[in-house]
Amino acid sequence: MRARWKVLVILAAVAVLAGLFVALRPGGSSSGHSVRRIDVDVIGESVNGPGQVKVSMGTKVEIRVTADVDDEVHVHGYDLMQDVRPGAAAAIDFDATIPGIFEVELESHGLLLFQFEVTP
Fold first, then answer.
1. With a threshold of 0.90, does the pTM exceed it?
2. Distance from C-alpha of 81 to C-alpha of 107, rounded to nearest angstrom
3. What kind and span of H or E run contains 120?
């Protein structure tokens, strides 16, 4: 009985380590798709961000926006929106499944945060 438990513990440890290896490999995802995090800070009319971003189809995109105003972050083309306000960042996560060039902006202020291109 003890030998059986040892074997089960060893198999469980191997499975956990294999899962960690897959999740931590370059690309950062066990599904085979990469993850791209984009951070943007807005103070007044000043945007501190990447300007332009290029990702491949299937990439998981994680957008984080902090701002000193109340507004809505809008990912055009994907029709994703998230409120942002001072002290509460907007977080938008999605899979890049539509090819093209898209704008992300503070909707009410008409302020371009960055453009991203999804390539096949």
1. no
2. 9
3. none
Q: What is the pLDDT of residues 41-61, one digit of tens each?
A: 999 999 999 999 999 999 999
Tokens, residue 62: 């994680």
Q: What's the length of the chain? A: 120
Which residue spans within the chain are E strands per DSSP?
35-43, 46-48, 51-56, 60-67, 71-75, 80-84, 90-95, 100-106, 111-119
What does the pLDDT read at residue 32? 57
pLDDT at res. 85: 96
CA–CA separation, 49 and 29 (whole Å): 24
Distance in angstroms (rounded) separating the CA atoms of residues 66 and 48 = 10
Strand duo 111-119 + 100-106: pairing: antiparallel
Quickly count: other Cβ atoms within 10 Å of residue 2's Cβ.
6
Q: Are 104 and 114 in contact (CB under 8 A)?
A: yes
CA pair distance 40, 58, nearest whole angstrom: 22
